[in-house]
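Okay, is this right?
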Amino acid sequence: ACHNDLLADNFILIKEDALHKYDFPMYLIDWEYGGMAPKYYDIADMFQEIL
């Protein structure tokens, strides 16, 4: 399954402890457009949004 809408606004990072600067969970939200898609669609879509 693919998310089909990987925008920066759909990622939530939760910093639980200031001592572990790079060790915190990342959550992907807003699965409204989620479904079946080619293997690399999400990666290509994310790069397209960056450019």
Observations:
- The CA atoms of residues 2 and 39 lie 8 Å apart.
